[in-house]
């Protein structure tokens, strides 16, 4: 009922105020024409009319301001949708190209390929694999490899299969006897496939027939064998090249080399975004952001390379590169920050948190450049704290022992984790932008912000508001007592070198 009344009020409100303004104007005119009012009364009524006009003008101006702000927000959303559309088209093009390569693999090349999952079930095979075994697709698809290649062969390659499922690349040669008694020699490779969580989901079995005349132990005609031998002699180099390329694609070696090459060639760029104090006599800080040089040129979203780097275990390399360059930059500018020490916030990946040698690395780097450990503050995502509290606690303990600071970012995005903060030596709590964005309109988000800040103060933790966009939000954050603010309303990211 209350919601319907509010909706009705929003609809008729502007008309009611206009009608009221007209009514006051007509009352004033009739009072002047039809009555003999004194000058004081006429002045009083005119003042009321002017005040009503000013009030209506203020309301219209506020409505226009809201319209402009909403239009700007819609433009941002539209631009984001256009960027996502371009990325989707690029992904579709990449997918089409991948399908063409898979079609080549599946139908043209004579190399036999099959994918075996962790349970030993054949989930994929190409035509060459099916033709060489002389079996129908129904005899291969979704069947155990023991049944597909025979119990004897399966037992002979059991060790290689286990090694592949343990995550090792395996290459070997194996004799295979067909039903007609002919013995063939195969060169086989097992290429493990890793899922997003780093576990082995199965392996690709890539096989090439390397049978020669001397290897054949059957008295039957060798026409098919001779054809295979001639084909092998004509295509040895191209097959070897294809196997190498296919192996790279499956293992991610190609993408991994691209990322490692970008690190080695200095193709990554460091940006920084201001973290501004909302109270006086406090130092400004900066969050360090990593960009790949091609992101700006190809309109890739910032950090688009992160999923690939995480997938192939390269985040510790990138994190070390960031730490080394930030410390080197801070060493050359540590005297330019005035009376207060500037701190640089660096996001740390889950792989780096579990790397026991990382702390030794950055301590040695700090000593090399003569930079104080309090110059760095490592950011840990709130989700990591929720999912891997033991690993995070251990990492925080080592970081704090070395003298560096620690921040939890994105706090409150999923759920409030007050209990997990107890016992952790956290210096900064960065409140997620999904809460900050609506504190001027949503009393629930404002209550969340106030509660988080209140608990943080009791724990002695400094609060930072993320994704702050305008002065009104900054004023409300000051009213609540938030210590720092970060977002486009404060400063946009800029190159660290500027």
List keywords for this structure.
19 helices; 5-stranded antiparallel β-sheet; elongated; Beta-Lactamase; 8-stranded mixed barrel; alpha/beta; 498 residues; 3 domains
What does this structure look like?
- It is built from 19 helices and 14 strands.
- With about 500 residues, the chain is of the alpha/beta class.
- The protein has three domains: about 80 residues, no CATH class; about 140 residues, 2-Layer Sandwich (Beta-Lactamase), CATH 3.30.450.20; about 240 residues, TIM Barrel (Alpha-Beta Barrel), CATH 3.20.20.
- An eight-stranded mixed barrel has the order 6-7-8-9-10-11-12-13. A five-stranded antiparallel beta sheet has the order 2-1-5-4-3, with helices on both faces.
- Helix 1 packs antiparallel against helix 2.
- The longest helix is centred in the N-terminal third of the chain and has 69 residues.
- The protein is elongated, with a radius of gyration of 34 Å.
Brief sketch in words of this structure:
The chain is α/β, with parallel strands linked by helices. The protein is 54% helix and 18% strand. It folds into 3 domains: 82 residues, no CATH class; 139 residues, Beta-Lactamase, CATH 3.30.450; 240 residues, TIM Barrel (Alpha-Beta Barrel).
